[in-house]
Each structure stands twice: as C-alpha cells, then as structure tokens.
Amino acid sequence: MLLHSLVQHADGREDAVPDYYQRRPVMWQIDLSSSGDSEPLIIDLRPAKGDKPRQVTAPYTGRSGTTPPPFLITDSALYVLAHPGLVKQPDEEKVPSTSPKDITKARQRHAAYRAMVTSWCNEHPDLPQARTLAEWLDSYTPGHWPEGMDQAHLVAISVDGAWIHDLPQAQDWWAQKVKSAKSGTAGKSQEGICLVCGETGSLLSTLPVPVKGLPNSGMNTQLICLNQPAHYRAGVKQLGATPVCVTCGTKATTALNTLLADPEHRTFAGDSAIVWWTRNPATETDMWTLDNPDPTEVAQLVDGLSHPHKGRDARAALDEDAFHAVTLRVNTNRVIVADWINIPVPDLKQRLGSWFADQQTWDGWNDTYLYWSVWRLALAAARWDKRKNKYIDTTVPVHLQADLAKAALHGTPPPAHLLPVLMQRIRADHHIDRPRIALLRLAMTRTTTRHKELCVPQLNTTSTEPGYVCGRIMAMLEAIQRKAMPKVNTTITDKYLTTVVVSPRAALTRLRIGARPHLRTIARTSEPAAKAMENRMRDAFDLLDALPAHLNAEQQALFILGYEHQRAHSARAAAEAIKAREAGKELSGEQAADALPEAAEDASVMDSTV
After folding, report:
1. Rg (Cα) of the chain, in Å, rounded?
2. 400 pLDDT exceeds 60?
3. Ramachandran angles phi, psi of 441, nearest 5°
4. Which residues contact 341 (CB under 8 A, 6 or more apart)?
5. Which of 168-172, 314-318, 573-577 is predicted most confidently?
6. Is 590 a residue whose pLDDT tops 70?
7. Residue 409: pLDDT above 60?
C-alpha cells in the first residue's frame, strides 16, 4: 500500500524528479566553454557560514562495496577530479593527501568515472556538450585542485553555464544504466508480476535509490533490505520475495526522497521524519497546522466539529481524495516504518479539528483560545530549567513528538506514559504554563470519560470533585498572597505544590490559617476586597464535605486543571475590573479584589514556553 501510494503521487506530480536523480548540495562548478577558446572556469559554490548550500537535481543511486561505481557527470571530487582528500598538517592547515594509498584510490575512482562519461560521450557524438566534455576529460591531468576543495565535495559540470546532467540525453542514458544494474544477476529469471502495479515486467533485486534526508541516516539507507538469513522470506533474500518492477521501485523511492526534501510535505520529530501527501497533489491538507497552527484556520477546523453538515456538498466532492502519512525512522541503514495512515481528506480535517479542540486552552486575560503545535506540546513534557527559564529539549520523552502526531492523525489517545511523566515534571519543577495545561487536557480528554465536564478550557464553579476543588482553592490562596505581597518572589505554590497536590488536607489547612494575616493586610487598603476574597475561598471549601487526605494520579491531574482554570478565570475578572476602573466606574468589592496591577504579569507567566 505504501509503495502503491507513492507511485500514484509520483504520477500526479507536475514537477517530478527524473528517474535516479535527487536534490543534492553542489559545492563546485566546472564551467566549460563550447568554443574551446578559454580555460575551464572553476566556481566555488560553497555557502557562507549560516547559509544553505545550493541544491541541484543530479544523478544519484545507492552505491556500496569495495569499488562503488561513479555517477554520471556530476559526482564527488574524488571521482571527477581524482582528489585524494585533505589531511591536517602539524600547523592545523589542511592540504591534499600525498599518501600512495589515497592517491591510488582516487585515481581508480577517477578512471571509473572517466570510462563512464566517455561511454556516454561516445554514444552522443552529435551532441555539442558531449564533445566539449570529452575534450576536457582528455586534457585533464589530476594534481591541481582549488584551495579548500575536499574529495567528498559534489562537483557539477556545465557548458556555457548550463548543467550537462540536465540534458534529456543524460537523464535517459543514466536511467537505462541504473535499471540494467538493478534488475538482478545476469542469467537468472527477473520477470514476474509486480505487487505494486500488477503488471508483468522486469523485477528489481534491490530498490535502486536509497532513502535520503532521514535523521541519523547513512549513505545507503534502504526502504526494503533483506540481506541477512534472519530477514529472508522463504530463503530468498532482497526483493526476491517482494517483487517490485523497475518502474514502480524507481518512482516510489524517488517520490519519497522528493517529499523528504520538501518542507511543505515533511516534518522532523526527534529521530523520526513524518512525510505526508495526497492522491491529488493540489489538495490542501492542512497537515502543517500541527507544526505551526494558524488561529484562523484552526478555528475553522474546530468550528466544523459543531457544524458537521456545513459544506456537505464540498466534503462529498473530496471523498475520492485520500491523505497519506508515514512516520519513518532509521536503524542501521534500514528504514523503520513506525506509522502509516491512509484516510479520506474530510476525515483528516475532522480529526485535526478534534485534536485542537481537545488541547485548546483559554487565555482569560485576553479572552482568547490558544492552540499549540505538536513540537511545543512535546517540549512541555521536558524538564524545566528554573535558572535559564526554559525547557531542556534533550529531556523530551523519546518519540513523544512523533507519538503525538500519530494521535492527532489517527484520532487516538496519546501514549499511556504521558500523563504520569507530565505530572512528575510538574511536581518536581512546579512549572505550570499553558502548553503543559494543553498537554494535560489532551491526555485527560482522550484517556478518560469520567470527568468530561472538568476537562474543558474554562472554569467549572459547581464541580465538587475533590482534586479539582483543591486546585481552585490553591489558586485562591495564592491570589490572596499576591494581593497582600505584590512583590513576592516565591509564592506558596512554588513552596508547597509538591506536597499539596498529593496530600491536600494537611497543606491546605495550614495555608488557610496562613492566609488570615494576608487578608488583614488587604483589609487595611480595601476591606471590601478582603471580604470578597475570603468569601470566595469559604465557598470553595464548602463544596467539599471534607478535604481529602490524599489524591490519586487522576485527581492530581484534576488538581492542576482546577488551579489553572481558577487562575485564568481570575485573570479575566481582573482585565474587566481594570477596564471598568479606567472608564471611571466605581468598583464593587468583587471587582476590587480582582483589579490587581500585577495580574497582567501573572497572566504572562502562563505563556512562558521557551
């Protein structure tokens, strides 16, 4: 199915890459003159520090062994110019190697390159570029290389500024050569029915193009590789038990590499790469919103969940289109297909809408809903560095970003270990921000159905769930402290969160007693505000028959939700109270309790996700 979908995509692309060609970073250009009246011009194309290298679509296929074959016309300096490689001198300067072993190897590679290019030139005697290239090869003598050139640098050759490898004659010749080399051992039957297209034709012994662009991948990473007895199927190695014709194998691997090189069709998640495409290449998939969600587009996706029949005719027109996504990793030069999905495009939009609805958070200060990218959610599960005021990206749980993307596309819960890990992080570093709340909401919404009325973006004032109410009380106690001590550096949450989230009875009882002096301090400047804050706290305590002695793992998560919901609710009330005061209106006791100048700063703390 994967190969079949890639072949379909290759057939539908208007900018398809030629067979056995690939986007590659070119470092040097040798420009030949068709008139022959000037010396070849060697142009340094190496990028400046911080810049991206220049990319060219050049011949490429997998090569390995003791004598790897050359590529046509465009290859490394080792093949094109017999460069022996640079070695470091005692003074740290790098100069071309003078080792007999390196020189012999370079000349052998150059001889193979010269033989291939000469063969191509001889088969195209009427082609001006071929004649110019043959004349240059005949006159070239290895031994003089530009300063800074190394043997691995890609060298492309042009005539009057036009790449020779882009000629149709070069593309066709190279494709035929690779196909003949990849069709199996001579003398053995290589005809059969292809599993991809169902046609009878010449079959491949190995896939002709390695997969490039995956994290931690090597030079010859294969999508299908059966070269050890433990891998064989019915005693047959390589593609003998997985018949794929030359055309389909070439299209599939070339299409996959093209998608991996296109930022609009792939994203990296740690050691994984997620690649997506549609049967119709012109279809807008909105997949990119997982990495960089646009509020307007996300709002449309979420709104579509509430109006399933809206645009029904438009959805029906898309039913025949399909969305494909594959998550790939590498293990010892073998590609691991970690996930594969094939769904109609309308289903994709519905799942993405559900994904953002399940993780949306409410910014009470600005009265807006916020949505988070997959990578930012994954980062929120890392350790928080208090000194540097940022997350430590190396502590993100392994494969979490890819697992979250999988949950979004499949409409499934996130991994089971997410909630325990996230709660352990919060208890350890006491850092609570909106991405962590979004991740907590996501885990709770998709793994339990018992508390749906609480796993929402905003405050539930009537809930009597012990964990949730205790979280609200903690936020109220913290607000009293901040009101009494506007410049406090360490809040009660910073000090006691680890204890109170596990054993709230003892901690909240002690903190309630400690809040009395703060309320007296507030009353000196605004007795109505102090009275309002005390009444709110009493009403919250009255929701419970008794404070729970201990909270289980699920109740601890609800504690954090209740704490954040109460803070966001207070931020909204503070924003409205401040607006009323600026308009010259007299504030009630409730409004005076909320109208804190530092409330704006408090709201911004929730956004700290460096």
Report:
1. 32
2. yes
3. -60, -45
4. 323, 324, 325, 326, 409, 410
5. 168-172
6. no
7. yes
Bridge partners (DSSP) of residue 340 are: 326
Per-residue pLDDT tens over the stretch 504-520? 999 999 999 999 999 99
pLDDT at 448: 79
| Sign of CA pseudo-dihedral 229, 233, 235, 240 | negative
d(CA 604, CA 602): 5
Tell me how far apart the alpha carbons of residues 461 and 351 are, in angstroms, rounded to a whole number.
30
CB 419 within 8 A of CB 443: yes
Give the contacts of 609 (CB within 8 A, at least 6 positions apart): 376, 379, 380, 391, 433, 434, 435
> For position 18, what pLDDT does the model report?
86
How far is 391 from 385, CA to CA, in rounded Å? 6
467 neighbors 558 (Cβ within 8 angstroms): yes
Q: Which amino acid is at 332?
A: T
Using alpha carbons, select from 70, 24, 56, 16 the residue that is nearest to residue 178: 70
Average pLDDT, the chain: 85
Q: Could you give the residue ranges of the DSSP H alpha helices within 46-99?
A: 77-80
* pLDDT confidence of residue 308: 58
Residue where the block lists tokens 């005076």? 592
Q: What is the pLDDT of residues 528-550, one digit of tens each?
A: 888 989 999 999 999 999 999 99
- Which amino acid is it at 568? A
CA pair distance 605, 609, nearest whole angstrom: 9
Round to whole Å and give the CA distance between 325 and 379. Answer: 23
Whether 325 and 287 have beta carbons less than 8 Å apart is answered as yes
CA distance 193 to 186: 19
Is the pLDDT confidence value at 319 over 80?
no
Three-state DSSP state, 335:
strand
The answer on pLDDT for 486 being more than 90 is: no
How many alpha carbons lie under 13 Å from residue 554 in its C-beta half-sphere?
12
467: left (phi over 0), alpha (psi -120 to 50) or beta: alpha
**Contact, 596 vs 482, CB < 8 A?**
yes
Please name the residues in contact with 188: beta carbons below 8 A apart, sequence gap of 6 or more: none
Q: What is the dihedral of CA 398, 402, 403, 408, to 10 degrees?
A: 160
Rounded Cα gap, residues 213 and 273, in angstroms: 9
More confident residue, 444 or 576: 444
Q: Contact at 8 Å (CB) between 471 and 567?
A: no
Cα separation, 286 vs 114, in Å, equals 48
Beta carbons of 444 and 553 less than 8 angstroms apart: no
Both tokens assigned to 112: 């193979």
The answer to whether residues 29 and 40 touch, using CB atoms and an 8 Å cutoff, is no
User: Cα dihedral sign for 540, 541, 543, 548?
Assistant: positive
Q: How far is residue 203 CA from its own chain's centroid?
A: 35
Of 548, 340, 557, nearest to 450 by C-alpha is 557
Residue bearing the bigger pLDDT, 450 or 46: 46
